[in-house]
Amino acid sequence: MIRCICVDDEAYASNLLKAYIDKIPFLEFAGSTTSPIEALGWVSDGRCDLVFLDIQMPELTGLQFLKLAGNKCKVILTTAYPEYALEGYEHDVVDYLLKPIAFDRFLKAVQKAQALLQPATVSVQAAPSFVTLPSTPAVTSAPADYMFVKGESKNKFLRINYADILYIEGLKNYVSLYLPQQRVVTYQTLRDLEEQLPQPPFYRVHKSYIISIDKVSMVDGNTLYIQDTSLPIGETYRDGFFKLIKDREKL
Length: 251
What we know:
Rossmann fold; Sig_transdc_resp-reg_receiver; DNA-binding; five-stranded parallel β-sheet; alpha/beta
């Protein structure tokens, strides 16, 4: 896990970063502060591996913080001022995020940090993250009704029953699996996962979504509903989706 702290004199900015950090399985939120001096103490104590650092702050600027912190941690600068980018990179920062920070841009930055801080982990995670237990002919030849997904550590896998999956959202090199009482995020592309899921009941309805047709409660035009969530039906997938619905009407 990469331990992260947020240093920003605006609480809403730290809250947004914390929400983003909580979505990524290899990141751990270790605290936030409006005081760069306090944050320097955390860095000196080895409390964090990665700092999300604002530039314009009253006690110390982010650039002054970088000079004092030295090479004790990796830093991603977060600011509304693009003119500091060059100087930031001269201090060997991992990345430079301009506010307001979009999640996809945040994800790209932390992947850079992971490559620097956990190179061995990255090479392991690059391998397929979804595995199914090999069938044992002496026991049964029936296909498995579950899969295992890679957890946040090297040898951790979580069992996911197909019947529990409501829908799946793709986030570049990550996917979020939405279950009735839980969301599981793991390192895998939506395309690779699509090839491993049984079809039906699973069907890709959008470049960013795979759904379980069994969990759809209503379809209204180009929108489908699963529980209280509405999801778009992409134009590319529309004809196949409605054909699937009609075929299941005949069952």
